[in-house]
Known about the structure:
Layout: H1 2-7, E1 12-13, H2 22-35, E2 39-40, H3 49-59, E3 67-73, H4 89-92, H5 97-113, E4 117-125, E5 130-131, E6 134-135, E7 141-148, E8 153-159, E9 168-174, E10 178-183, E11 189-194, E12 199-202, H6 224-241, H7 250-268, E13 274-275
Amino acid sequence: MARQALEAGKHVVCEKPLAVSVKEAEDLAHLAARTGRVATVPFVYRFYASVRLARSLIAADARGPWLLHGSYLQDWLADAETDNWRVDAGRGGGSRAFGDIGIHWCDLMEFVTGQRITAVQATLGRAHPVRAGRAVATEDGGVISLRTDTGALGSLVVSQASAGRRNRLWFSFDCPDASYVFDQENPERLWIGGRDADRVLTRDPARVGGRPDALPPGHPRGLCSECFTDSSPTTIRACGRRRRLCSPTFDAGLRAARLTQAVLDSAADDATWTEVPA
Length: 278
């Protein structure tokens, strides 16, 4: 459908996964570039004000993060009787927990720090090998180690079967002089750890870092629905007025496909370190 829309000269917003294989994602990204149409993938967590603030502060940090760690935990598939199209490897692109939510964490890490993951080491597992009476091949969760192009180390724990965790995306990006912590279940605040003192910055439109914030201080933002609300106008403005596109493009969808395939390859090969194509 995305291909047909692009070929018809239409702008496209396509949810992830952009495609169910790296080859298909490459084809779509190349097609979007050839047509010159606006083609985006809603990695909307980039639009949290606290995330943007962390990005601007890290960019100004002279030494940058050397340790990148965090988790993305949910419980909507904690029940063995719960089923969904994402459980089917053929329909969901081969990976479930990582391809669905782990890739959000990786996208945020690369967006906030400016670093790129160059290699991964992944172990995947299942809380329920049988769902709704049928065997499943996709993962309920996993543990992923990573390396970046600056030499930083990282780790990610991802799960869709962790009871009580509704939608907890959490990261800590640690520099020698400061650590930056974001928790999606408490998105109004950015925790900054220092050697002598810690501080908590509450969302303030005056210091968002890189884009305006529609809500004034003291008006709490919601969870991901607010990010969708914020991301949509940037795409619409780019379509109608040829403004610079701030939303993640199909290249981000291709990047996600390559990362997901590297995770699957590593897990299939007894958690060997697997390079991620640039």
